[in-house]
Design brief:
The complex is a heterodimer of chains A (309) and B (264). Chain A is α/β, with parallel strands linked by helices and 309 residues long. Helices cover 27% and strands 28% of the residues of chain A. Chain A has 8 helices and 16 strands. In chain A, β12, α5 and β13 form a beta-alpha-beta unit. The longest helix of chain B is centred in the first third of the chain and has 15 residues. The chains are: A alpha/beta (309), B alpha/beta (264). Bound molecules: flavin-adenine dinucleotide and adenosine monophosphate. The site of adenosine monophosphate (AMP) has 24 residues of chain B, from α2, β5, α4, β7 and α5.
């Protein structure tokens, strides 16, 4: 049994999600290869070789992998898929965009966002915004899987796997990336943060969001997150959204400020180790998942909290 | 957001159909319960609605038609007979007609993608706009699978779509921020939440929708094998969080976080 893990990277560095995906592959068992497809991506390939459990890194280096389009990556994965029993990628927007395309061309099901491995063909995955956990068994010859990164602890980096180049597939030229605006931040990434301070509609405006939550996040070394309502209202960019259809997070500490706790929001954060809710409505559903609930006005509470930490 | 560009001459000469797959799912406000025997979730007497992302997809398609870019909007739903209601909702928002692919088989994304592939062969749409994810299976697969089967480009998680000169320029919500792709048509686009705000279906439009054409076909008519590839062995409730406590003030909160939870 050999497993292929598709690395997510920016050509220089691996995204942390790749390390969790290799961990899921280890749970399945067998040889693990990592595919690094990129443009001048030697640094990312070198890093992949350090991941524990990996026996080989396959590198396809070509200019048309620069923008990481699903069309080009699919063609590459399909060309090299023979011999693999499982193909895994993180359940990030990268993996979600790519893997169903791969699965369809292999004529197999894709198993989305697994949170557990029962055996080589049986996996656990959340459905209905995490209100139920399904154990599913695949009858397909190849299992194409995306991995919920918060469910698997990252592997460490104490390895020196061999690196081999593989031939790139032809450029499909179906898609052209014309612009990419990545949110710049000095803060930790939401997916990898130990502490997250998250704000909702209760903050009232983007100005309030930044004025109140940034000092708190600074003090705690935290990442910033948000509810959908806060993103829709333009307080913060889309990539701050935590939830069923945003990012799934599971930090040590999640502080929800002015967030009501809709099912879709809870789906993204209820696996956090400790949850704090600050909300002026004592009946807000967020309190049902909070370890520590404080019924109070956030405009007074947050500055006081910053001062007290 | 919808931006218009390009003349209508092109569109008049090349009728542009848009196909929109709409799924009937548990309403997003319902908190589902796992059945005691662990075979699934309890859907008896539960409110069903159109998948919210698919409402956004229909809205986008209808706006493209209203803008003179698209010529026809066809809604497709695959599943039980009751999906007719979902199609009527789509037509009340503004879809011109509906196609029900009727089956009692529990459809998985690959099967739906193959059904849509067969309908694409028949209808020759220039764009398929689907939802990014169905809120019941949370699969996030069908659009990408259809694009692969058709060998079409895809632009998933769209928050802005501009159609001009036979191409689509699509802004996508990605983990780090936003990116814009230019794709040739035909193509598949999947919707994210901020693409638009779907209109409410007005009573007159609901009445009108009842008279719009709705065809029913069976998977076998389309030559598609919809046998599931994944077997659900069991469905369980996730571990419940043990009830927390209310703290009286900031001082108590900080004390608990430092000394009890030890997380700061
Ligand atoms: C298909 C679909 C997908 C969705 N996906 C997501 C998702 O991924 N993530 C997500 O978050 N949502 C998602 N939603 C939206 C979700 O249903 C809720 O609408 C949203 O989470 C509400 O955000 P909120 O809690 O910030 O706003 P609200 O529900 O309006 O809550 C605001 C809260 O702030 C409190 N408040 C107000 N003023 C103060 C004050 N001065 N001090 C203290 N508290 C105050 C109020 O008591 C209230 O509880 C989705 C919805 C749909 C239909
Ligand atoms: N049974 C279905 N009938 C019609 N459209 C569907 C069906 N299943 C999925 N879709 C479409 O595919 C999208 C993604 O669904 P999924 O891949 O199941 O998360 C949905 O938002 C719909 O647009």
């Amino acid at each position: 049994m050999t497993i292929l893990v598709i690395a997510e990277h920016d050509h220089q560095q691996l995204k942390a999600a790749t390390l969790n995906t290799v961990a899921a592959a280890q749970k399945i068992g067998g040889d693990i290869h990592v595919l690094v497809a990129g443009s001048n991506c030697n640094a990312a390939a070198q890093e992949a070789a350090t991941l524990s459990g990996v026996s080989a890194v396959k590198v396809a280096d070509a200019a048309h992998y620069q923008s990481q389009t699903a069309e080009n990556l699919t063609a590459l994965v399909i060309a090299h898929a023979a011999g693999y029993s499982h193909i895994l990628a993180p359940a990030t927007t990268f993996g979600k965009n790519l893997m169903p395309r791969v699965a369809a061309l292999l004529d197999v099901a894709q198993i989305s966002e697994i949170t557990g491995v029962e055996s080589a063909d049986t996996f656990v995955r959340p459905i209905y915004a995490g209100n139920a956990l399904a154990t599913v068994q695949s009858v397909d010859a190849v299992k194409v899987i995306t991995v919920r990164t918060t469910a698997f602890d990252a592997v460490n980096r104490e390895n020196a796997a061999k690196i081999e180049s593989i031939s790139p597939a032809a450029d499909t030229a179906q898609t052209t990336l014309t612009n990419r605006e990545l949110t710049k931040s000095e803060r930790p990434e939401l997916g990898a943060a130990k502490i997250i301070v998250s704000g909702g509609r209760g903050l009232g405006s983007g100005e309030n969001y930044h004025k109140l939550l940034e000092p708190l996040a600074d003090k705690l070394g935290a990442a910033l997150g948000a509810s959908r309502a806060a993103v829709d209202a333009g307080f913060v960019p889309n990539d701050y959204q935590v939830g069923q259809t945003g990012k799934i997070v599971a930090p040590q500490l999640y502080i929800a400020v002015g967030i009501s706790g809709a099912i879709q929001h809870l789906a993204g954060m209820k696996e956090s180790k400790v949850i704090v809710a600050i909300n002026k409505d004592p009946d807000a559903p967020i309190f049902q998942v909070a370890d520590y609930g404080l019924v109070a006005d956030l405009f007074e509470t947050i500055p006081a909290l910053v001062a007290a930490i | 957001m919808l931006w218009l560009a390009g003349g209508c001459v092109f569109e008049k000469e090349n009728p542009m159909k848009i196909l929109v797959p709409v799924k009937r799912v548990v309403d997003y406000n319902v908190k589902v319960r796992v059945k005691a025997d662990g075979t699934g979730v309890d859907l008896a007497n539960v409110k069903m609605s159109m998948n919210p992302f698919d409402e956004i997809a229909i809205e986008e398609a209808v706006r493209l038609k209203e803008a003179g870019i698209a010529t026809e909007v066809i809604a497709v739903s695959c599943g039980v007979a009751a999906c007719q209601e979902t199609l009527r909702t789509a037509m009340a928002i503004g879809a011109d007609r509906g196609i029900l692919v009727e089956t009692d088989v529990d459809l998985q994304p690959l099967a739906v993608a193959k059904l849509l592939q067969a309908l694409c062969a028949k209808e020759q749409p220039q764009i398929v706009i689907c939802g990014k994810q169905a809120i019941d299976d949370d699969a996030n697969q069908t659009g990408q699978m259809l694009a692969a089967l058709q060998n079409w480009p895809q632009a998933t998680f769209a928050s802005k779509v501009v159609i001009a000169n036979g191409k689509a320029s699509v802004t996508r919500e990605i983990d780090g921020g936003l990116e814009t792709l230019e794709i040739s048509l035909p193509a598949v686009v999947s919707t994210d939440l901020r693409l638009n705000e779907p209109r409410y279906a007005t009573l007159p439009n609901i009445m009108k929708a009842k008279k719009k054409p709705l065809d029913t076909v069976k998977p076998a008519d389309l030559g598609v094998d919809v046998t599931p590839r994944l077997t659900t062995l069991k469905v369980a409730e996730p571990a419940k969080r043990s009830a927390g406590i209310r703290v009286a003030d900031v001082a108590e909160l900080v004390n608990k976080l430092k000394n009890e939870a030890k997380v700061i």
